[in-house]
Amino acid sequence: MIIDGHVHVWPDKIARRALGSPGDGLRRFGDGTVASATETMRAAGVDRSVCLAVADTPERLETANRFVGSLDPERFIGFGSVHPARSPEDNVASLRENGLRGVKVHPLFQGFALDDRRLYDVLAALEGEFAAVFHVGPEHPGDPRGALATPAMIRDIARAFPRLDVIAAHLGGYHAFEEALEFVNGLDVHLDTSWPPGIASLDPARVRAAIASHGPERVVFATDWPMADPATEIASIRALGFSDEDTDAILGDNLARLIGLQTTTETA
Predict the structure, then answer these.
(1) What angle do CA 118, 181, 234 make, to 5 degrees?
(2) Angle at 224 between CA 136 and CA 25, to 5 degrees
(3) Pick the CATH number of 3-267 from 3.30.565.10, 3.40.50.1370, 3.40.50.150, 3.20.20.140
(4) Average pLDDT rounded to a whole number, residues 170-183
(5) Quick check: pTM over 0.85?
(6) Is Lyase found in the keyword set (predicted)?
């Protein structure tokens, strides 16, 4: 089973606007609609995709969660949004009502820091029930908003919430690879492999060493689609040279176990 652990889709009527212009220099590998995601993932051999909602304001929380909760469960796994401006009870109720298995926290878009005490209250309510994907690092080198979501903050969250299934996106720090090695690598958290425009833009030897040091059993395949091509990313993971067992674990089995899906090994 191959699972893409980091995918973004939007309703057809807002997908183009939500995806934004290519002024960030990153190519789009689809238009952000559910149909485009379905076609792209099927062509790449991806069995399931984790679709991450991000509510940039507290007022949009329910709309975002309702949308990802409505997606076809045979192909998509919904991770909702939380917002610290809403109470922990409101956040959890929205996730449960929409049948969501986890959350995405994106401080750069949502306008708060990972060390916000209000967020800590929400994370305490999630602990033991929901997985949490955290954006970590700046959107581009020199982006001052990177201070809202640093690898050191992920370390502090992991220590504060040992029963929270933490997934640190972008190998623990987008455009902050060295900081991620210092603060996140080796923690009892999962790393996702998304790194637009592709993980091959990093030195493969360093990526392999980082994954080996952290433990392949705590790494999950992810693309950040439509900002990267899943077929290319799968090939890049296979090219790292891990054993078949470790490669299968990274490409899907680790995430399946984390969120309670049947794994490749269990279906063999």
Answers:
(1) 95
(2) 90
(3) 3.20.20.140
(4) 98
(5) yes
(6) yes
